[in-house]
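job 3f2a | input accepted
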Amino acid sequence: MPGKRKKVVVSVAKKLEAIRRLDKGEIIRNVAADYGVGETTVGDWRRNRSHLEQCATISGDAMTSRKTIKPAEYNKVDKGLFLWFTQMREKGLPVSGPILQAKAMMLAKQFPDESETFTASCGWLDRWKKRHGIHQLSICGEKLSADEGGLTKFKNEFEKLVAEEGYSRDQIYNCDETGLNFRMMPSKTLASREEAVAPGYKKNKERVSILACSNASGTHKLPLMCIGKSVKPRAIKHIKPEAFPVYYAHQKNAWMSRDLFQKWFLEQFIPLVAKFLKKNGLPRKAILLLDNAPSHPNESILRSEDIIVKFFPPNVTSIGQPMDQGVLETFKRHYRRLLLQEILEKSSAGSTLKDCLRAINIKSVIYWSAQAWDAVQRLTLKRSWAKILSSTDQSDQIADDVDLHSIMKQIPGCEDVDRNNTDEWIHDDDCEQERTDDEIGHLVNSAEENADDIEDSETAETPQVSHEEGLNALEIALKYVEEQPESS
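job 3f2a | predicted structure (488 res):
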């Protein structure tokens, strides 16, 4: 009679490794034997795949040795501090361990059920960092301490890697997130002061997050990822997700998170890049450059055979990351051009600025964002890589030229707006007001509730187009085409 099998505890990383082997067609019996467990156990791993991937995302680099994932003892403080840390990280402000401990004690006051016994000990801080994959807390200030020497070193190392692995510019990608306050007008105009005090105006509900991604040659721009607050906003609830010109996702504060980024990487980046490479006769091999934001999982999670990621070192992102070298700024200029053109058109028809802004919904944002991204020229994308990859094109000028000021001055109430104020408007998304402890506490306490609808300021639902209306519109469009004279 065979002896009882010795209990084997396998790490989360090994379990995911085993699942990937099954995906490639290996027999479950052979996989189970290699890990010293039963076939039923391996089957359980595969059935619990989504949970394991979520655990790996949460635990970051610590997943390589962790066997199980237990919830945090002070779960609300844990989540609240991570929200605050992400906020500071987006602002480029330095954060150290003692600062985090002090802030955690302050946030604990928002959660009476946890505050009595919470002490923010060093051991608790170490476990918090491991859960969220956070390292080198004292070096988080990208904008405050950009490292030119570090960028030069990274460029040399990266160009060596590109040469050794044989990557072409078509196979090298970069992506980055940015906030977009989609209704915001220049803060110093008379018109925007009227807007700010308008009934029902809620500035903190106007933000979405945008993820843009392109390769170094500018030949492949992936569809934007747009993160809103609502699962299914009213303005788009009758539109199938696959019909969107962007990849729409939702999160209660409209920020990027690790699980959303991992989902985008697996469902969008890998399939679209693989399709692009195959179409152009290139091997299925690519590299994605990322900054070390807390919302980005580690390399072991973001990988699919020869499609891999590489992180920028601390403090070089703001001066070296291609998307930060004019690409996202150009995208926002194009978006705000579309916004101003919409306002100008409706103002000419008698609408006030306040009415124009209130009419903008998430559907407008999705389609304007897609148009703005399409308008970013290939030359702009190519030149954005100048600090990472050597190029024969030595010009630092951005190819796209969007004159917002001339459009702005045509809008009633904005005739006297200063050009500097118009230029500052492009960067106002990066100056979002910091959330208070009360607001963070409210976000955490309401995490299980349904996300707020981003269309709160609308008074009526967007009506669904009937089959009859759609057919009539199609017939009119066909008649219009038939009546047009043939082009010479």
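job 3f2a | Residues 75-132 form a domain with the Arc Repressor Mutant, subunit A fold (CATH 1.10.10.60).
job 3f2a | closed
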